[in-house]
Task: inverse folding
C-alpha cells in the first residue's frame, strides 16, 4: 500500500500534514489531506481488538503514507476488511474496508493536537455494560451510518 514513492517527489509537498505513530515508534504514518471527525465504534470486533472501543478518524488512502512500518501487521477481520496493528507494542492502528479508498485510523495514535472532535457513536447496542454513552454521541437510527470525509483538495 502507501509509500510507493515512484518518482520520489511526493514528500516535497510542503504541508506537514498530521502525523501519527504507535507506542514503540515502529509504525509512523502521515496524512496529507483532510481527516474526518472521530466516530466511536462499539461493535464487538472493535471492542475485542482494542480492549474497549475504537475511536477512529478517517482519511483518503491516497493521502495516507507510511513513514515506518516496522512491526505493522494486518489481520483479516472479515472477508472485506482488515485491521492494522503493531506486533511489537500491540497498538491498534488502522481499519480498512478493502477497496474503499479510505482508511480508518485509531485517533489515539495521532501525534499532538488534532483539531478533531468526536462526532457520534455507532453500534451502541453492542457496547459494554460497564460504561455509558452521553446522549450527544448516540447516533440517530434514521440517518445514514456515515460521517462525511471532506473531499481532497486537488
Ligand atoms: Zn509499535
Ligand atoms: Zn466496530
Result:
Amino acid at each position: 500500500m502507501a509509500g510507493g514513492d515512484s518518482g520520489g517527489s511526493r514528500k516535497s509537498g510542503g504541508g506537514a500534514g498530521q502525523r501519527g505513530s504507535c507506542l514503540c515508534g515502529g509504525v509512523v504514518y502521515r496524512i496529507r489531506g483532510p481527516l474526518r471527525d472521530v466516530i466511536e465504534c462499539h461493535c464487538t470486533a472493535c471492542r475485542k481488538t482494542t480492549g474497549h472501543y475504537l475511536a477512529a478518524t478517517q482519511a483518503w488512502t491516497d493521502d495516507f503514507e507510511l513513514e515506518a512500518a516496522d512491526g505493522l501487521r494486518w489481520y483479516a477481520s472479515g472477508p472485506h476488511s482488515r485491521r492494522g496493528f503493531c506486533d511489537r507494542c500491540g497498538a491498534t492502528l488502522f481499519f480498512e474496508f478493502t477497496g474503499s479508498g479510505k482508511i480508518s485510523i485509531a485517533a489515539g495514535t495521532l501525534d499532538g493536537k488534532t483539531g478533531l472532535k468526536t462526532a457520534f457513536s455507532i453500534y451502541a447496542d453492542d457496547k459494554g455494560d460497564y460504561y455509558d454513552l452521553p446522549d450527544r454521541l448516540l447516533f440517530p437510527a434514521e440517518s445514514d451510518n456515515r460521517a462525511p470525509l471532506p473531499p481532497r483538495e486537488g
Q: What stands out?
A: The first strand starts at residue 18 and ends at 21. DSSP finds one helix and ten strands in the chain. The beta strands are 18-21, 27-31, 38-41, 54-60, 64-69, 72-78, 81-86, 92-97, 102-106, 118-122. The pocket of zinc ion (ligand 2) is lined by residues 41, 43, 45-46, 54, 123 (CB under 6 Å).
